[in-house]
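Protocol step 4 of 6: record predicted structures for both targets in the notebook before any analysis. Target 1:
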Amino acid sequence: MPDVVILREPVRLDAIAKLAEDGFGDLVKAVVDVGRRVMAVGGELHADEEALLLMEGARQADLWGINLYPAEYGTPGWLEYDSMINVRPAQENRSRSVDDAALRDQIADIVGELVFR
């Protein structure tokens, strides 16, 4: 598995596709920090990326796990809201998804700012 990297500046989709190829084949796990508008990618587990962001000062409540499917870029299937780190009853998120539509939109906006074709 490649090392976890934090995206603070936009990267080309090719870089995300390479991470997928080197890792799971068709997907990249990522954790979006909605507070700082950055994203960690490349870990074997969402928890790996979450841990790195927390070490850098992120707030737990701002971190949400997603999967990116580079071959699906530009379609609804490109971004999947599915991670065990998203299960947070205290934040009224009781599923592996991101239940709040406004929060999903915010995550999608950040991913859109950080990944381009």
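Target 2:
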Amino acid sequence: MEMRSIDAPIPLADVRRLAGAQFGDFVKAVVDLGRGVMVIGGELHADQEAVLIEQGARQLDLWGINIYPDRAEERIEFDSMINLRPSQGNRSRSVEDPAVRERIVAVVTRLIHP
């Protein structure tokens, strides 16, 4: 499955194409809050996480999400096994801290344009 590193804005149509080629209505992504970039596509969030770590990301800055390009509301789903990290106070697959969620939404909104 195709994975794509995103560090500059891309059209929503590209996200929709990746989703259609992989899971149908959504695409997996990992957001690097430290550098304001993300990797989309691929089968597992762990694969995207590995790409970002190879690029110099710190694991504590990486958060897994799912992006539903055809949803106007709730386009971002905060659900990934890589988010389970009790040592950082996140005890579920979701992103529990509202401030972290806001930062993730800001990165995704900046990088994906309708």
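Step 5 preliminary note on target 2. Residues 15 and 69 are 7 Å apart (CA to CA). Residues 3-113 form one domain.
Proceed to step 6 after PI sign-off.
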